[in-house]
Design a protein that fits this description.
heterodimer, A: 413 residues, 5-stranded parallel sheet, 9 strands, elongated, disordered C terminus, B: 188 residues, mainly alpha, 9 helices, 63% helix, 0% strand
Chain lengths: 413, 188
C-alpha cells in the first residue's frame, strides 16, 4: 500500500483528534502564503482584470502546476495513491453558472472567500465587509437551494478527470498543463509590460530555472507513467493473498442475501462473466462488466459512499471474480467481497426447486456455468431474486465494514 | 555586583503593529510556495485547500444553535448539521480558522496589519464597502452553487485535474473579465 495519504485521514477525523491540528497547520500555511503574496489587498487582486498586475493568475497557476507535478510524481513513484486523493466531482451546469456568478462577485467585491479571510486578518475593512457578505451569501444559498435542487444536481459526471475527457495518458495531460501555464505566464508578463508599464528586464532570471524545473518534472511523470492495477496489486499482494487463502473475503450466498435485505447497506453487485452467461441468468440488481472493462468502472466506484457500500464480485465459480477482486483491491475500493462458489453455488442454494434449471457436469475450477436454462431470462428466474425474509441460512459472517471518512465531508469547498 | 544590562528595545504591542511595511513576495515564489502547501495537504490528508466549505459549516453551526428544527427540514442543511451531527466536525473548519491566524501572523511580521480600505481613487469609502459586502454575498452564493470556491475548486480541483474544476475556473475568470469594464470606477 502507498504510504500516503496517511491512514488516519481515511477514517472519521474524530477517531484521531490530532488530525484537526494538522488541518489547522495546513490552513495556517495557506493563509500565511496568501498574505505574503499580496492576496489580502483587493487593489492587487482586482488589477488582474484590468491587465495591470497579473499576480492572481501567476500565483494561482503557479500553485496549480507546482502541486500537480508533485502530486503525479508522487503517484508515479508509488508513495501516493491518487485514487484516495479527493478529486471534486463534476456537476457541470451548476459548476459553470456558479463559476460565472463567482467571477461577478470577485470583480464587484474585490476578493474571493479565502483571500477575504486573510484580508480581514490584517484589518482591511473592505475585506471584513466582503467576509460578512460571504456569510450572508452562504446562508442565502442554504435557504434557497431547494428551489432549484434538480438543477443543482444536473450535469453529474462523477470523478471526471481531464485524462478521461481528452482520452490522454496522465503524463501527457500534466505536460500539456505545464506548457499551457508557462505560455500564460509569458503572455501575462507582456500584458503587464503593455498595460502596467512593468520593466521585464528587472524580473528575476531565476524564473527561467523554475520553468525548466517544472518541465523536467512533468517529463519525468510522463516517462515513469502512472501505476496500473497490476503494479498496485504487486505492492499489496503479500498481505491480501493471505486474506484470499484464509477465505476471509469470500461471502456465502446467505450473507449476500442478508446484505441485500439490509436497508442500511448499499450493495453493489458486479457480474464479471461472459455476456452470454449473464443473459442466461444473473442476480437481480447485478451489473455486468467484463474483466477488462473493470478499470473504467473504478472512478464511479470510488464515489460510492464508502462507509455503507459493500461491493460483491461474482463469476460462475470464483476464478474470474477473484481476478476482479484483486483489481478492485489494487484500486483502493473499500469493502469488496467475492461471492463464494459464484453463480453455481447460488443456484445450488436458491434454484434447487426450479425444475427448468438443469445441472450439467463441468470441470472443477473451470469457472464455467454448471447449469442449462430453457431460455435467457436473465434475472426473471425465481432463483435470481429470492426473498431475504423467506430464507433462513446458516453462514459465517465475513463482512466487516471499514467505516471510512467521506473525503468531501458532505460539504466540499 | 551590578552591571547594566545592554539596552534592549522593550516589547510593546504598539511596536509589533508599527513595523515597517515590507513588499509582497514575487508572484512566482508565492505560487510555488502555495503549490507546495497544496501538495502537502493532498499528500498527507487526501484533501486540498478550501474556504467557502468552512464558512458554510460555521453558518450551519449558528443556524443549528438558533433553530435545529429548521436544519432537519432543509435537505441541504441536513447533510451538514442534521440530527446530532456537529457541523464543525469537518476538515474545512480548522483549515479556514488556520488561514485566519496564518494571514494575521504574516501580516504582523511584514507590517501589514493596519486598518484601511483598499479601493480605486474615484470611489467613496461608503460605496466601496457596499460593493465589498454585495460582492461577498454574490461570490459565496456562486461558490456554494459550484460546490467550492477559488480555493476548493479552482486551486484544489485544478491540481488534481478534475474536469469540472477546470471548466468552472474558466467561468470565474470569464465572468470577472466580462464585468470588469462596467465596474472600472471602483478600481482604476
Amino acid at each position: 500500500m502507498s504510504i500516503f495519504p496517511l491512514q488516519a485521514f481515511l477514517l472519521p477525523l474524530s477517531q484521531n483528534p490530532w488530525t484537526y491540528a494538522v488541518f489547522g497547520l495546513i490552513g495556517f500555511a495557506f493563509g500565511f502564503v496568501l498574505e505574503m503574496s499580496g492576496f489580502g489587498n483587493s487593489k492587487k487582486l482586482s488589477a488582474q482584470f484590468y491587465f495591470r498586475d497579473l499576480t492572481v493568475l501567476k500565483v494561482m497557476f503557479g500553485a496549480i502546476v507546482t502541486a500537480m507535478v508533485l502530486l503525479f510524481l508522487s503517484s508515479a513513484i508509488g508513495i501516493l495513491d491518487y485514487n484516495l486523493v479527493y478529486v471534486p466531482e463534476t456537476y457541470l451546469w451548476p459548476g459553470l453558472l456558479g463559476g460565472v456568478i463567482m467571477g461577478f462577485g470577485f470583480i464587484i467585491g474585490g476578493f474571493c472567500p479565502g483571500t477575504s479571510v486573510v484580508s480581514t486578518a490584517t484589518l482591511k475593512i473592505d475585506g471584513a465587509l466582503f467576509l460578512l457578505g460571504a456569510f450572508v451569501g452562504v446562508f442565502a444559498f442554504g435557504e434557497t437551494e431547494h428551489l432549484f435542487d434538480a438543477f443543482w444536481h444536473s450535469g453529474y459526471y462523477g470523478r471526471l478527470t481531464l485524462m478521461e475527457v481528452f482520452g490522454l495518458p496522465t503524463g501527457v495531460v500534466v505536460l500539456l498543463v505545464v506548457l499551457m501555464a508557462l505560455f500564460m505566464f509569458w503572455g501575462a508578463e507582456h500584458l503587464e509590460r503593455i498595460f502596467g508599464q512593468r520593466d521585464l528586464k528587472r524580473e528575476p532570471r531565476l524564473r527561467y530555472a523554475g520553468a525548466g524545473a517544472l518541465v523536467l518534472v512533468a517529463l519525468a511523470v510522463l516517462i515513469i507513467g502512472q501505476p496500473d492495477a497490476a503494479d498496485k496489486w504487486a505492492r499489496i499482494s503479500t498481505a491480501r493473498e493471505a486474506a484470499l487463502t484464509a477465505r476471509e473475503v469470500q461471502i456465502a450466498p446467505g450473507e449476500l442475501l442478508a446484505s441485500l435485505g439490509d436497508d442500511k447497506l448499499n450493495v453493489v453487485m458486479l457480474d464479471v462473466r461472459s455476456e452470454a452467461d449473464f443473459n442466461l441468468f444473473h442476480l437481480q440488481g447485478a451489473q455486468h462488466v467484463a474483466l477488462d472493462e473493470l478499470p473504467a468502472l473504478v472512478p464511479s466506484l470510488l464515489h460510492e459512499p464508502a462507509a455503507v457500500t459493500v461491493t460483491v464480485v461474482m463469476s460462475n465459480d470464483e476464478a474470474a471474480a477473484t481476478q476482479a477482486w484483486k483489481t478492485l483491491q489494487a484500486e483502493s475500493i473499500a469493502n469488496v467481497y467475492v461471492l463464494e462458489g459464484g453463480i453455481n453455488q447460488w443456484i445450488a442454494t436458491f434454484g434447487a426447486g426450479d425444475a427448468a434449471i438443469v445441472p450439467v457436469a463441468v470441470d472443477a475450477g473451470s469457472d464455467r456455468l454448471a447449469y442449462t436454462f430453457p431460455a435467457a431470462l436473465g434475472a426473471r428466474y425465481e432463483a435470481a431474486r429470492p426473498s431475504p425474509h423467506e430464507w433462513e441460512l446458516e453462514y459465517t459472517p465475513k463482512i466487516k465494514l471499514e467505516r471510512k471518512r467521506s473525503p468531501s465531508g458532505g460539504g466540499c469547498g | 555586583m551590578t552591571t547594566a544590562a545592554p539596552a534592549r528595545p522593550r516589547f510593546s504591542l504598539r511596536g509589533i503593529f508599527s513595523r515597517p511595511e515590507k513588499p509582497y513576495i514575487h508572484p512566482y515564489l508565492g505560487g510555488a510556495l502555495l503549490g507546495v502547501v497544496l501538495f502537502l495537504a493532498f499528500l498527507v490528508t487526501r484533501n486540498g485547500l478550501g474556504a467557502s466549505g468552512g464558512m458554510n459549516r460555521y453558518v450551519a453551526a449558528v443556524q443549528d444553535a438558533v433553530s435545529p428544527g429548521h436544519i432537519d427540514q432543509t435537505p441541504y442543511l441536513l447533510k451538514l448539521a442534521g440530527g446530532t451531527k456537529n457541523p464543525l466536525d469537518d476538515w474545512s473548519v480548522p483549515v479556514l480558522t488556520g488561514a485566519l491566524v496564518g494571514g494575521f501572523v504574516s501580516g504582523l511580521l511584514n507590517g501589514r496589519v493596519k486598518p484601511e480600505i483598499n479601493k480605486g481613487p474615484r470611489i467613496s469609502n461608503r460605496a466601496r464597502l457596499i460593493m465589498a459586502f454585495s460582492g461577498g454575498a454574490i461570490m459565496a452564493y456562486g461558490a456554494r452553487m459550484a460546490r467550492g470556491c477559488t480555493s476548493g475548486q479552482a486551486l484544489s480541483g485544478g491540481a488534481t485535474l478534475s474536469a469540472g474544476s477546470w471548466a468552472l475556473m474558466m467561468c470565474i475568470f470569464g465572468g470577472a473579465y466580462a464585468l470588469a469594464y462596467f465596474v472600472r470606477k471602483a478600481w482604476l
